[in-house]
Specification:
The structure holds two protein chains of two kinds. By secondary structure, chain A is mostly helical. Helices cover about 75% and strands about 5% of the residues of chain A. Classes of the chains: A mainly alpha, B alpha/beta.
Chain lengths: ~350, ~325
């Protein structure tokens, strides 16, 4: 028993060190941005809040992705599920006359069902998560196109009032060049995203389910021998991921107010990259949703750099993220190597 | 551990200070324009980007902040938000899609920054959210193509013959796709002997255009005309036709029509693969600059501003025309 506790402790140490690097990197990058682009207003409060506004959906989705990755799995269906969610929302409200609240609830249920199917295939039929969620990805994208290949714009008043509802902050205002006083604001989607993030964090750290997730990802065999229900834990993880994906899709839709088959292409890769940069191990057992949040924020900061710079190709975002992924994966494997050395 | 963090911090700070030295500071008297471009998916788009970059130069009194959205609306929304933060004077957007812009345009309106649309239209309930739109008349382009085809078939003595057509559409929902499909459809409806066999999206790319044409050629063995809603799709379609052992162009079995008329389309016409190309003028930069100057002077501008457009076919002196064109 005593050996186990020391092992867990060391794991958390390595984990929190990776997290620390990620957080430090974010702040260094952001402060560098404030210095380089100080003339253009990079340091404005609103610019920081925009990171959350534009990425609210991704923050929630990356949290779900982190949970699945901690179990040692992966969920590449999320981008397509977001597209399907947006399309279903738009289609139900515009073509079927369903109200905004029931439509939102229905897409959340859709997320749960999607997760149940994927989770069942992964956990109970022992199919590779990559293959299952690849099928899920094609299925969701295909269904989106079946519902409509045209773009559906949302004009439902309740929905638009949610989308446009600004929460102004009482400080940090500035007068722009046109002489307009502007106070920083956020949208409700940011609040939802942060609340979800805290809930998932608490769940992972303080509940039995949360600890089972780490145990299953750390070593499935010993988790089984400890008497944990490995299959059910995995199933729940995929249900959670798809549900959060449904919710993330709803937040995404609040930002774009439309359903379209091409939406959110490649979002799954952004979510995975954010989780890895945030210190989640692809082999499972290690990860933290706050790390993933900073992964998302780092991606947002790089994007902000590119737009502020104004002449670079926006593909530099992906290239920079690729370099960072390499950096973090190498770092992770150094940690893993150090750990196995210690064991001997 | 601390040492490592420190060294990471130090090196990052060094990189940052290097960047700070090389960054050119914006001068106050320049008009700052943020352009949220769709991407770089076609030659047309590249010509459009170049037109903006060569018009909005510091010599002309502008500072251009350019953003490539990689065909993603969410990226464009982010770019517009960033422009607002950078306190630009004007925002120009070539929207990826037509809908879903209300929220971010309201943010721009709140900051008092005028928005000008280029190329593609936006559907918003309140059209005062943008100053004006600059672009091609896509419906007219489609109609011109139909009228040209009718004349061409007449000339060939096939005016009364049954003609089988297929269309490789653009990205579904884009103004160019909607307008060209509609315009060509108007002329199609006037000809009972024209039979539109199928329409599928080639997403404005060469690879997808080729794929769609391959599937058309497998499904239908008697195609007379292919309408491609941009040049790149036409290049793909030409490859597919040749691979299937058929011929196209003025001397071939299949008539190929395309839109945009970029310089590679001229090469295809000169090579005898493409019959006609309907211009979609990508040089929006000067027109937008003109509008900005009017707005600066406090003048009213027309809500819809078409750019001038022509068409080209193999009966013309294409070498001479191509030499004069900028794209």
């Amino acid at each position: 028993m005593s050996t186990k506790t020391t092992k867990t402790k060391r794991k958390i140490d390595g984990n929190s060190f990776l997290l620390l690097i990620t957080i430090a990197l974010f702040f260094i990058m952001y402060i560098a941005g404030m210095i380089i682009f100080r003339e253009q207003g990079f340091g404005k409060v609103q610019n920081f809040l925009n990171l959350f506004i534009s990425n609210a959906g991704l923050i929630v989705i990356a949290a779900g992705m982190t949970v699945v990755m901690i179990t040692g799995g992966i969920d590449i269906s999320v981008g397509s599920v977001v597209a399907l969610t947006c399309m279903l929302l738009a289609w139900m409200m515009e073509n079927k006359g369903i109200g905004a609240i029931p439509a939102t609830l229905l897409v959340l249920v859709m997320g749960v069902v999607f997760g149940l199917v994927q989770g069942f295939l992964v956990a109970y039929l022992n199919i590779q998560p990559f293959i299952v969620t690849l099928a899920g990805m094609f299925f969701a994208r295909g269904m989106t196109a079946i519902i409509s290949t045209d773009m559906i714009s949302i004009s439902n008043e309740t929905f638009l009032s949610w989308a446009k509802y600004k929460i102004y902050l009482p400080f940090g205002g500035y007068v722009n060049r046109k002489g307009v006083m502007i106070y920083p604001y956020i949208y409700p989607s940011v609040v939802i995203a942060l609340v979800v993030l805290v809930l998932v964090f608490v769940m992972l750290r303080y509940t039995k389910f949360g600890r089972s997730i780490y145990a299953v990802g750390g070593n499935e065999q010993s988790a089984l021998m400890m008497g944990l229900n490995v299959r059910r834990t995995k199933l729940k993880a995929y249900v959670l991921s798809s549900t959060l994906c449904g919710l993330g899709g709803f937040l995404f839709c609040l930002n774009t107010c439309a359903g379209f088959v091409e939406q959110a292409k490649g979002l799954e890769m952004d979510a995975i990259a954010s989780a890895v940069i945030g210190g989640t191990l692809l082999t499972g057992g290690v990860g933290n949703v706050f790390g993933s949040l900073f992964g998302v924020l780092i991606k947002g900061t790089i994007e902000a750099f590119i737009t502020f710079q104004g002449t670079l190709s926006s593909w530099w975002t992906r290239i920079t993220i690729a370099a960072m992924l390499c950096f973090f994966i190498v770092l992770q494997s150094i940690f893993a190597a150090a750990k196995s050395k210690n064991k001997k | 551990m601390k040492k490592k963090v420190l060294s990471v911090a130090l090196s990052a700070a060094m990189v940052a200070s290097l960047g700070a030295v090389t960054t050119v500071q914006a001068e106050d008297d320049l008009i700052v324009v943020g352009y949220a471009q769709v991407g770089a998916e076609s030659d047309w788009r590249t010509a459009n980007t170049e037109s903006f970059k060569s018009t909005f130069t510091e010599e002309n009194g502008y500072k251009l902040i350019f953003d490539d959205a990689q065909q993603k609306q969410e990226n464009q929304i982010k770019a517009i938000r960033s422009f607002i933060q950078q306190d630009v004077d004007y925002i120009v957007v070539a929207p990826v899609v037509e809908t879903g812009w209300e929220t971010v345009l309201e943010e721009a309106a709140e900051a008092g920054i005028p928005v000008i649309l280029s190329d593609r239209m936006m559907q918003v309930t309140d059209d005062s959210l943008y100053e004006c739109w600059v672009g091609g008349n896509f419906v007219k382009e489609g109609e011109d193509a139909g009228t040209w085809l009718a004349g061409y078939l007449e000339e060939q003595g096939r005016g009364e013959e049954d003609i089988n057509l297929v269309t490789i559409q653009g990205t579904i929902g884009a103004s160019a796709q909607v307008g060209r499909t509609e315009g060509f459809g108007n002329i199609l409806a006037q000809h009972e002997n024209w039979n539109m066999l199928d329409m599928q999206s080639g997403e404005f790319t060469q690879a997808k255009g080729q794929e769609v044409m391959e599937s058309f050629l497998k499904s239908y063995d008697d195609i007379d005309v292919v309408v491609c809603e941009n040049d790149n799709e036409a290049f793909g379609a030409i490859d597919a036709i040749k691979a299937a052992g058929k011929t196209c162009g003025p001397e071939g079995d299949i008539i190929v029509i395309s839109f945009d008329a970029v310089s590679a389309a001229f090469d295809a016409m000169i090579a005898g693969d493409l019959n006609a190309a309907f211009e979609c003028n990508p040089l929006h930069g000067p027109r937008v600059a003109e509008i900005i100057q009017k707005l600066e002077a406090g003048e009213e501008v027309e809500k819809i501003q078409y750019v001038d457009e022509a068409y080209f076919d193999t009966s013309m002196d294409l070498e001479a025309i191509k030499a004069e064109r900028l794209y």
